[in-house]
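Predict structure. Chain length: 368.
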Amino acid sequence: MYINIVLVSFVILLGWLMSNKDNQYNRGLYIIFCSIVLILVAALRSPEWMTSRYHLDSLDYKHVFEDALAMNWDDLWKVMFQRYFGNEGSFDIGYLYLCKIIGLFTHSYYIFSILVDLLFFVPFGIILYRYGTSMRKLIFAFIFYIALIQTFLLAGARQVYAIGLDMMALLSVIDKKKWRALLCFLLGVIFHFSSFLFLIPLLMVWFDVQPKVLKLSHIVCVIMIPIVLAFPNQIILFLGETSGVEKYANYGKGMIQGGAFIFIFLIEILSLFCLIAIKKSDLQNSTYRFFYTMAPLFTLFAPLTISNGSMIRISLYYHLYLALLVPFAIDCMFQMKNRGIIYLFAILSLSVFVLQDGGIEYYFFWQK
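Prediction complete.
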């Protein structure tokens, strides 16, 4: 079946039914119901099908889980030492340890997947619950997830769990819990070393960078888009070498592959919309300024996918927060009486994007 048709219909219909009483309690229930469905879809997919049909890493991560169960603790310590002190290998140790710990309670990869997906959906749900102040904002956020994030959950990519820990770090910084923020951030790094890139917005939020600086940074990054498009390999090579992620450095040494032009166009259009719609005064006394710190970064990093589509993983650390920024921009630009039709247009437009060519052909693990 084409799972996106089912999910988009479910998200919109449930949101419409629950919007009759658009209060925090109903919004919380909506977030829980949608998250449960999306977790089950991500966790119970057929890794063999996702890998053979869409070239995702789903089957590789299943094998990593099985290999981790077969390893003893001494082997894990050796792998960790080789990775961080012996400069051998590129697979960060956090995911292996998580596989081993959960493997003490279950040897089922699919139960493991359900549990580990909570690392993403719990902080994502907390952010939506805190800052998704209307049902239509939540509907947009979940459609955005299906459009631009779901594929990484279907792949079982360990980077998604690092991003979940980064979301917890961000929430901790907002709450002024600096030690909890540091712990979550460091855990994210040992899941995926590229998570170090999230240190930039964390510091910006911690030092409460002023709206005028954020807006200026956003403008500068928009101006730099042609430069990034012209020299993506050199930038990727620099990022790969400085972060120690050899795979990304190798992307930068390759030929231009002509990555996801539709993705670049969509992110930059949304970036421009946020730049125009959100004024400095809108950010001054709003908690949304914490999420606006991502705007310069996804504007700058999204064009790197022109070199290699896999570089979308770098942008993902930041463009995830468009799920909140776009609704905020709509509220800033349009009067209350016009927002309903604008939200409808935004949700339907994103749904069309999600459902192009039918969306993802999906099978549960017991089907293939």
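Summary: The longest helix spans residues 109-131.
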